[in-house]
Amino acid sequence: MVKNIVRNPVFLKQKSVPATKADAQVIQDLMDTLKANQDRCVGMAANMIGVKKQIIVVAVGPFIFPMVNPVITKKSGRYETQESCLSLDGVRPCVRYKEIEVDYLDADFNQKHGKYTDFTAQIIQHEIDHFEGILI
Prior knowledge:
alpha+beta; Peptide Deformylase; 5 strands
């Protein structure tokens, strides 16, 4: 189901908690909501649809994939950039890493490990920041 985008910074600054199998519908809602906003959005965290769980979805070209309870385990290639967020107005500076490795669960809650670079890595880092209430 397509959900409304939360724009309240007080809510968005609250920390998220790990997701469980009981949160499976949140994954689908996030995917549906990202698809509906794909003309202006490449990633989304669950708190952006009002759910304080550690779930993100990432769009890479026509593909959208979820990451449940993702944890960045390795990062390299620090750089400074500017980003925007569907939940916020404007563009803000931030620090990202060119290459990251991530442990996460897939939509079926199977353990995965992935290596990501460049823009995909940047999207994942931005969305994981939402878990800590970090707004760019």
